[in-house]
């Protein structure tokens, strides 16, 4: 049974929530990720990374299918997260799987670029 994670973000045009099941975390992002929510997203990702490490989880699925837009500053937050995971010793790394919409152009382009940063830990599913 999935256990909701307490570090959710709920803003007027953006939400981020997560749940943990066994050794896996499911994250759902929706709305618009722009400069107005960058600080919230940064805190969310820092806390998420700490929780994944604390629980020794092996995978995080990030569902962005309901995320309509992400600007470059929020994309940089994901670059930080991926880089942080990559810098961990091999035994502490975990996989990040982005669940994306094939019809949303920014997702194909931006998530594809993120996957090239660390193809050993990142994958994108359409």
Structure description:
The chain has helices spanning 38-55, 72-86, 105-117; strands spanning 3-4, 9-10, 14-21, 24-33, 59-70, 95-99, 122-125. With 126 residues, it is α/β, with parallel strands linked by helices. The chain has a single domain (3-125), classed as 2-Layer Sandwich (Transcription Regulator spoIIAA). Strands 1, 2, 3, 4, 5, 6 and 7 form a seven-stranded mixed β-sheet that branches. A hairpin with a 2-residue loop joins strand 3 (14-21) and strand 4. Helix 1 packs parallel to helix 2 (72-86). The longest helix has 18 residues, at 38-55. The model has no long low-confidence stretch (mean pLDDT 94).
SSE layout:
Elements: E1 3-4, E2 9-10, E3 14-21, E4 24-33, H1 38-55, E5 59-70, H2 72-86, E6 95-99, H3 105-117, E7 122-125
Parallel strand pairs: 4-5, 5-6, 6-7
Antiparallel strand pairs: 1-3, 2-3, 3-4
CATH fold node name: Transcription Regulator spoIIAA
CATH homologous superfamily identity? STAS domain
Given as residue ranges, the uncertain stretches (5+ residues, pLDDT < 50) are none
CATH-defined architecture: 2-Layer Sandwich
Give average pLDDT, whole number.
94
Order of secondary-structure elements: EEEEHEHEHE
- Which CATH top level class fits? Alpha Beta
Instruction: Give the distance, in angstroms, between the N- and C-terminal Cα atoms.
Output: 25 Å
Largest sheet: 7 strands, mixed
């Amino acid at each position: 049974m999935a256990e909701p994670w307490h570090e959710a973000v709920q803003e007027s045009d953006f939400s981020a929530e997560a749940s943990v099941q066994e050794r896996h975390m499911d994250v759902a992002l929706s709305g618009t990720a722009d400069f107005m929510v960058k600080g919230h997203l940064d805190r969310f990702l820092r806390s998420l990374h700490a929780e994944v490490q604390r629980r020794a989880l092996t995978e995080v699925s990030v569902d962005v299918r309901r995320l309509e837009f992400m600007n470059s500053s929020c994309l940089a937050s994901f670059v930080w997260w991926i880089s942080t995971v990559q810098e961990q010793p091999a035994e502490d790394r975990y996989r990040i799987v982005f669940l994306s919409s094939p019809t949303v152009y920014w997702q194909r382009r931006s998530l594809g670029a993120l996957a090239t940063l660390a193809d050993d830990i990142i994958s994108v599913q359409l």
